[in-house]
Amino acid sequence: MKQLTLLLFCAVALFSCEKDNIQVPALSNITIVSYTDTTVTLSATITSTGSSGITASGFCWSLNQLPTTSGNVTSCDLVGTTITCTISNLVLDSTYYIRAFAESEAGTAYSNQQTYVAGSEPASVGFTSFNVNSTLSYQDAALSRLYLDIDGDGEDETSFNIDNYQDLSGIFVAPYNRIFVSVGHGVVTAPDIQFAINYDADSTRLCQSFILNETIDDSASYLFAAYPFLGINHILPDNIMLGDFNGAGDSYIGFKIEIDEKYHFGWIRVSLSSDFKTLEIIDGAYNNADETPIRAGEN
After folding, report:
1. Measured between alpha carbons, how far is 246 from 232 in angstroms, rounded to an integer?
2. For the chain, which residues make up each domain, given as ranges?
3. Is 51 within 8 Å of 13 (Cβ atoms)?
4. How many CB atoms lie within 10 A of CB 97?
5. Which end of the chain is more exposed for a tag (fewer CB within 10 A), N or C?
6. pLDDT tens digits for 190-247?
7. CA gap 77, 83 in Å, rounded
8. Percent of the chain at pLDDT above 90?
9. Phi, psi of 77, deg, nearest 5
10. What angle do CA 261, 195, 210 make, to 5 degrees?
11. Are 113 and 293 contacting, i.e. CB atoms less than 8 angstroms apart?
12. Alpha carbon distance 5, 248 (integer Å)
């Protein structure tokens, strides 16, 4: 009986380990190769086959965002690691949402979404990156601020701030019982950039912290708002710390910026010290394609 129990335990453990190692494939962003008024030829790369071989691949597309293989599908043969095929019978000037897909025994994986207007020159493919490499430091009763022009249009879209004051009036008076680390304050009253905040965040509007390769888009799990806080340290009287960035090392802020009346998703990499007194703003990027997700750290 003991031997039977041991055999059953080993079988369950082996099955559990195999399940834990199951991984779906991974895909690159879509490249638009060519187009006509009613067709578009697309390409994508399978960057990982996951834990098993690819059984099907191609592109799914829809007039609605985030299409899946349950809707319109154009299947393509996989040549090496590349998927290339043409979607036909499009309606001129209609907006389509397209995702590459790859299926395996582990499941179905999708690329980031590509937006395409039939018959129109595709939006610029790829990402716009920017380096900052600046550090803000706590300045006792003074405000420490860095302005940032993200899209290179000559106007500052946002700022990073560390300030420390006694009350909501903004008067710097000892004993300086709160340290605020914020984004966007002091720039414009109607900003064209918004940042992802925690869905359950209170009026302090705490920034959502993203990890490397996490998708940034119009998710239902968080909201976008102007003038959020990376964190607040209530030093007196109870030393309460709010936020997910302090002491976490390299972390990512998600944002969407309005360019030519359309929003583009992006990220900024920062590192905030555990005592809220040093903020390093490292780099960032945004997707050149409007209304198209980006992964934190992708550029």
Report:
1. 9
2. 26-117, 127-295
3. no
4. 18
5. N
6. 578 899 998 654 556 889 999 998 999 987 678 888 888 888 877 665 667 788 899 9
7. 7
8. 30
9. -75, 145
10. 125
11. yes
12. 44
CATH T-level assignment (fold) for domain 26-117 = Immunoglobulin-like (2.60.40)
Tokens of 76: 């393509």
* Pair of tokens at residue 52: 């098993």
Does residue 191 have a cis bond before it (omega within 30 degrees)? no
CA dihedral 285, 229, 139, 235 (to 10 degrees): -140
> Looking at residue 28, what is its pLDDT?
79
Assess contact for 258 and 265: CB atoms under 8 A.
no
Q: How far is CA 14 from CA 4, 10, 11, 22, in A?
A: 15, 6, 5, 13
User: ∠284-287-291 over CA atoms, to 5°?
Assistant: 130
What does each C-alpha distance from 281 to 120, 134, 187, 252 come to in angstroms? Answer: 37, 5, 17, 10
Give the mean model confidence (pLDDT) for residues 144-148.
87
What is the average pLDDT score of the chain?
Answer: 81
- pLDDT tier at 156, thresholds 50, 70, 90: confident
| Structure-block tokens of residue 53 | 């071989």
**pLDDT given for residue 78 in this prediction:** 84
pLDDT surpassing 50 at residue 38: yes
3-state secondary structure of 2: helix
Looking at the predicted structure, is the pLDDT value of residue 30 above 50? yes
Asked whether the bond before 293 is cis by omega within 30 degrees of 0, the reply is: no
DSSP per-residue codes, 91-122? PTT-EEEEEEEEEETTEEEE---EEEETTSPP
Give the count of beta carbons closer than 10 Å to the beta carbon of residue 31: 17
